[in-house]
Amino acid sequence: MKLEGVKNHLLLCNGASCTRNGAQEVTEAIRQEIRQLSMQKVVHTTKTLCNGRCAFGPIVIQYPRGIWYDQMTPERGRQLAQSIYQNISYLETASHVYDGRIFLKLEQGVNVNGDYWTGNDEDAHRDKHLSDGDRTKEPSLRKSEKQSD
Ligand code: FES
């Protein structure tokens, strides 16, 4: 596997719990969609063992963006692959996202404005991070905005 040119790495949990909940079908759907979109050279996938979030599986993790997805289905997997193809963020079932320093929990997913923050206590945490001048990740967290390379 040549890594040169790869832009995304998807970690596909195929631990025992995720497998019981359909991880193999999710894996096949994502890999099939990647082939369909001719993205094999820019999206690398790796089947993993347990990622420690069995209760929420099947789990998929997208790097380098640092987005963790819960309860993936084959359809959601295809949507994730398509979002990579379209160079847009996919946050429909995102549970956590890396903000440049730490992973933040997303309480309720994306709201109608395409902004996943929903008025929970972590807003203050997020605002503190952003006010600290660490705004580099903020635009990429919005559903409707393009990913930066
Ligand atoms: S088996 Fe997937 S998170 Fe544990």
Automatic annotation (TrEMBL):
Q: What is the protein name for this chain?
A: (2Fe-2S) ferredoxin
Region annotation Disordered: residue ranges? 119-149
Pfam families linked to this entry: 2Fe-2S_thioredx (PF01257)
The organism named in the record is Marinithermofilum abyssi
Q: Which domain of life is it from?
A: Bacteria
Q: Which InterPro entries match?
A: Thioredoxin-like_sf (IPR036249)
Stretches with biased composition (Basic and acidic residues): 122-149
